[in-house]
Design the sequence.
């Protein structure tokens, strides 16, 4: 599933092609994605200017003067910029055409993504309002996370992957950040000191920032806006490296299952 760095990479990729352009039409080939695409979306958006191309958690949204088009890539979705000379393929479900004959095309083989309409403040939408803070913003800091973790008995990895606590720390990035912070992923969230939480916050920000700069992490079928894969996967320190040598101490990387997700860590470096 595309995570925050992959979604941010897509947002940055499509922004120059859409911002300040007027929507001239929307073609819906498949209404039934994770939730049905609103049938009146073409009439709501036609003739409206794209004021901003934004991201909240793993949602991209096009801010218009009368509302917002919300896009989620689901499990395997991707966005392309093309023209009407590029014929749609089997899994190309929706085209948003803007002035200059530019098309934003959503491809979603599994149909787990969504394209929805939010007529008011995006933060009031039912999918957005429950979400925690963005991990790269100042509001996500050690004091906030330590307070949230107080008396929590769940593992620290599960805790930081909870989107109500902080958004965008998916399975890959949780494992990587915990390794950088030297924290065992099985440790209880409520038993970690403020000083170590500070290291974790710094590690989360660093890990996500590096991944965004590298264009995200490509596993299975995600590719960026240009069709080129992200390259952060080549720099993973623990994720997917079961049995390989730790880059710090040389001991073997271990793998366990937490809440049906694979976790990778070094039992020597992470306490």
Sequence:
């Amino acid at each position: 599933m595309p995570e925050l760095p992959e979604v941010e990479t897509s947002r940055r990729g499509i922004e120059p092609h859409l911002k300040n352009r007027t929507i001239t039409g929307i073609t819906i080939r498949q209404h039934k994605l994770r939730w049905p695409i609103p049938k009146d979306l073409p009439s709501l958006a036609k003739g409206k200017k794209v004021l901003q191309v934004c991201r909240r958690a793993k949602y991209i949204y096009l801010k218009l003067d009368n509302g917002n088009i919300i896009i989620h890539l689901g499990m395997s979705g991707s966005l392309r910029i093309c023209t009407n000379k590029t014929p749609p393929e089997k899994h190309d479900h929706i085209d948003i055409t803007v002035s200059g004959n530019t098309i934003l095309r959503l491809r979603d083989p599994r149909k787990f993504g969504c394209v929805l309409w939010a007529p008011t403040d995006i933060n009031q939408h039912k999918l957005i309002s429950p979400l925690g803070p963005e991990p790269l913003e100042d509001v996500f800091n050690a004091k906030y996370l330590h307070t949230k973790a107080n008396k929590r008995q769940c593992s620290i990895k599960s805790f930081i992957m909870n989107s109500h606590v902080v958004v965008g720390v998916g399975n890959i990035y949780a494992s990587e950040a915990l390794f950088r912070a030297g924290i065992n992923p099985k440790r209880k969230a409520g038993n970690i000191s403020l000083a170590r939480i500070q290291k974790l916050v710094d590690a989360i920000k660093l890990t996500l920032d590096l991944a965004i700069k590298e264009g995200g992490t490509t596993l299975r079928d995600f590719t960026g806006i240009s069709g080129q894969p992200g390259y952060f996967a080549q720099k993973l320190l623990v994720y997917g490296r079961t049995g390989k040598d730790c880059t710090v101490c040389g001991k073997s990387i271990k793998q366990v299952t937490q809440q049906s997700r694979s976790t990778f860590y070094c039992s020597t470096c992470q306490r």
The longest helix spans residues 194-213. The chain has two domains: 4-124, 142-265. Residues 142-265 form a domain with the Helicase, Ruva Protein; domain 3 fold (CATH 1.10.8.50).
